[in-house]
Amino acid sequence: MERLQKVMAEAGVASRRASEKLIASGHVQVNGKTVTEMGIKVSEHDEVVVDGVPLHREAHVYYLLNKPRSVITSAHDDKGRRTVVDILKEEGVAERVYPVGRLDYDTTGILLLTNDGELANRLMHPKFEVEKTYIAKVRGIVNNNDLKQLRIGVEVNGRLTKKAKSRLIETDHKKQTSLVKLTIHEGRYHQVKLMFDAIHHPVIKLHRETYGPLDLNGLQSGEFRELKQDEVKLLKRISK
């Protein structure tokens, strides 16, 4: 069950706020009855009609993408750059989908796309603590003290990050670089890069390896697949 104005917004009738105005002014019927109160919830079995036109609700779809570099994590880009949604459209995906969270332009790796707004919002909400694992190539030789700082939290934009998991994968003393695995359950803007900046090891390359229980096994860069039903159920379970 979802709020009526949210269902209308996801169906493309209007924004959520504009949908509320349509409801309040008597433009919306549910199962043949005009509704004007806020807070009404409807299921996929309820018939919603706006100004005499039945609401078309797309079935929920869920895709897992291995995002390549130099692609924008957005449904569209004002500068005309290629987006993650363009990748799916190019392969014939017709449904309107949106990325869950974001990866930077130069960051690669696992990304979910869906038209299930409720699940997307829950997965992004910090209280559910969905773990995300990154592999970062950084400048300098990372030591045990650096790893400890990442684990207990570092200051980013005046706030301490929550506890994380960190592990040194390898170092290259000739090139003066390190490869580090970092697992976090926050989603602040540029968080991973800023965490490494805080310990004076700026990121050279960044790849997101896992998202919650999902990984990229079998997906090359730029490839995507639909989630299996049990994977969707698992995501819904961990975000309840």
TrEMBL record:
Gene Ontology annotations of biological process type: enzyme-directed rRNA pseudouridine synthesis
GO molecular function: RNA binding; rRNA pseudouridine synthase activity
Cited PROSITE patterns: PSI_RSU (PS01149), S4 (PS50889)
EC nos: 5.4.99.-
Record keyword Metal-binding present: no
Top-level taxon of origin: Bacteria
Key words of the record: Isomerase, RNA-binding
One Pfam family this sequence matches: PseudoU_synth_2
Database matches in SUPFAM superfamilies: Alpha-L RNA-binding motif, Pseudouridine synthase
KW Isomerase (keyword) present: yes
A GO cellular component entry from the record: cytosol
Domain RNA-binding S4, chain residue ranges per copy: 2-59
Entry's family note: Belongs to the pseudouridine synthase RsuA family.
Protein name, as recorded: Pseudouridine synthase
Organism for this UniProt entry: Limosilactobacillus vaginalis
